[in-house]
Structure formats: structure tokens, C-alpha cells
Amino acid sequence: MICVGIEGTAHTIGVGIVDGTGKKCNVLSNIIKIYRPKQGGIHPREAANHHASYVADLIKESAEKAQVDFADIDLVSFSKGPGLGPCLRTAATAARALSLSLDKPIMGVNHCVAHLEIGRGTLDGCKDPVLLYTSGANTQITAFAEGKYRVFGETLDIGIGNCLDKFGRNMGFEFPCGPKIEELARKGKKYLELPYSIKGMDIAFSGLLTAAEQYHKKGQRLEDICYSMQETTFAALTEVTERAMAHTEKNEVLLGGGVASNKRLRNMVQIMAKERDAHFFAPSKDLCIDNGAMIAWLGLLMYNSGIRMKVEDSFIDQRFRTDMVDVSWRD
Ligand code: ATP
Ligand code: FE2
Questions:
Q1: CB distance 3 to 76 below 8 Å
Q2: What is the pLDDT of residue 37?
Q3: What is the CATH number of domain 2-116+287-324?
Q4: Which residue spans of the chain are classified as CATH 3.30.420.40?
């Protein structure tokens, strides 16, 4: 079965094509275009205009790369939410148009669940992981329990990526700021004390962001601040992930989201996994960040399990929670 997936929750418009029977995911193509605001944060309408201007070309390019004829596509999938309304509507509109013109079924999927399923679909041995999902807007620790992906922990304020991006933006770095912060952090020597906010399995970053900015005002080295931000936030993320693993008695951990590209975060979670005798999984960077292939794959899993969606019911849902999805495709 061949499925095309359209992703458009925030900065990224992506189109991916996957093939599979429902067990292993074969990614045939996966291309993205990222909206980069000239200054400040994301402007939802401008991001949506960006997505609208690229999506048709991305669909064509994706089919060419995959060497798939439009006639061979069996299903059209799109991210239903969570995300920014104008961006979600643009991706959904493109998906509806494609579904109607090809006369093929449509499926709206949960973006956060897609981050988890692409790991299970593409990584050997990844069967029942705890997912640490760290992106710009989202920071969640989720795992399967009693028919749903439950949220065991999450940020109480901003996402970890957002925390890094806001700090970086104020320092004049180009968006996305995570890679620059990672580069500077490698040259950090001195650990500066920062707030470490964990409540149960939830976590908060805004106090740390303020404290980091104050260190900058006081003239501390940027390298030391970046190093301390990474050490503190990633330690907190690793701690809550470990707590979720202990609580659920799962022995696999999976990373997802753009911040999972960070080598130090990978390294910390990997050490934790090793110490618990658990398995560590991280998809390649193109499958960690927002992308169309993961949306296609989840659509395919849902369709194969018997779920159907009519075009007239293919609404978006800006506040679509991970635990609102009945996971009928897993045993
Ligand atoms: P979502 O809708 O999932 O919240 P998003 O638009 O934030 O999506 P992603 O592509 O998953 O998209 O993640 C982007 C985030 O990842 C940005 O905040 C960026 O700074 C961060 N990031 C990217 N590379 C790195 C890195 N090497 N280290 C730390 N953070 C990184
Ligand atoms: Fe995402």
C-alpha cells in the first residue's frame, strides 16, 4: 500500500511517500520546506502562505523522487493537529484536493503519535518504546498503555526547542537556534547554576530561560551559558523519561522531534538507557524533525486497521491531544 502524507503543523511543510503492509515502513521520499521568519517568532498566517506556495510542487517532487505514479497512490494522509490553525488548514486543504482529484481515501492523523509510530515503523527492534518527543512547540513523554498513547509527562510552559530558540533569537542567532547553541555548548567550560524545574513527570523551562538571559546581561560567556542550558534541560528531560520508563516498566526509549538531533541529548538518554539495561532508539534526523513520511505512515497504519474518514469530516484540530486517539492498530 502506498500512502502520501502532508505535514504542516508549524514551520515545516513536508510531503512524504511511504510503502508498507503495516509492519515495516519503507520511506520512498520525504521532502520538506521550512518557513524562516525574517525576524521574531513564527507568524501563523505568513507560515501558512509559505506552505501554500510550496505544497503543490512538493507533492509533484515527492512523487518523482519516489518514482511513483499518482495512479499508484492508495491513500492521502495529513496532520490533523495539534498545531497552528492557518498552517494546519493549508496542509488539510492540499490533502483534500489531492484525495478528491485522485479519487483516493483521506486520513487525518495526530502529529505527536506520528513521531512515535515512525520510530516503530523504521527501526528494527523498536516495538513498545517510551517516546521523548522534543520539538519547538512540544515536549512530551508518551507511551502506550491500555489502548492509547498516554502522556506521562510534558512541559508546563514552553517547549524545549522554543526555549532554545527564544534564547538564541535574543542573542541574534539565526532560526532555528538549536544547532548554534549545540555548537557553542561544546566550547563551554564552566557550569552556571540554572533552575531545574520538575514536578512529577512534568517539566518547565521559562524560569531557566529568564535566568540564562540574566547571565548574559551579567557578562557570562555565551559558550558557558549554552553549555549550562543544555546540561540542565537535557538532564531534566532524561530524568523524567527514566521515571516514565520505570513507571510503565518499558525497556525501550525512542527519541523524536527536532531537538532530538542534538548529540548531547542523545548521549544523555543513551547513557540512562544503558544503565537501565534498556534499548535506545533514535530515527535519522530527517525522520526526527517534522516530516511528511511519518504522517503518511500513521495514515497507512490507521487505514489498514479499518479506520475510515470522509472528506467532509476531515477537520483540523489545533488542540488534538496525543491521548485522544484510540490506537486500534496495535495489539
Ligand atoms: P512541532 O510542531 O513538532 O513542535 P517544530 O516546528 O518545532 O514542530 P521540529 O522540526 O520538530 O519542528 O523541531 C524544530 C526545533 O528543533 C527548533 O526549536 C530547533 O531549534 C530545534 N533543533 C534543531 N536542531 C537542534 C539541535 N542540534 N540541538 C537542539 N535543538 C535543535
Ligand atoms: Fe513535531
A1: yes
A2: 87
A3: 3.30.420.40
A4: 2-116+287-324, 127-282
Pocket test for ligand 1, best of 164, 186, 234 (most atoms within 8 A of CB): 164
Does the pTM surpass 0.70? The reply is yes
Smallest CA-to-CA distance from 262 within 180, 168, 166 is with 180
Render pLDDT for 178-189 as a digit per residue (tens, 0 to 9): 999 999 999 999
Backbone angles phi, psi at 311, to 5 degrees: -55, -40
**CA nearest ligand 1 atom 9, residue:** 258
User: Does the C-beta of 182 come closer than 6 Å to ligand 1?
Assistant: yes
Percentage of residues in the chain having pLDDT higher than 90: 96
Per-residue pLDDT reduced to its tens digit, 214-265: 999 999 999 999 999 999 999 999 999 999 999 999 999 999 999 999 999 9
Ligand 1 neighbour 179 (Cβ under 6 A): yes
Q: Which of 289, 295, 320 to mutate to test the pocket of ligand 1 (most atoms within 8 A of CB)?
A: 289
Architecture field, domain 127-282 = 2-Layer Sandwich (3.30)
Q: How far is the CA of 105 from the centre of ligand 1 (A)?
A: 31
Phi, psi for 251 (deg, rounded to 5): -120, 30
Query: How far, CA to CA in Å, does 104 sit from each of 2, 28, 275?
Result: 11, 19, 48
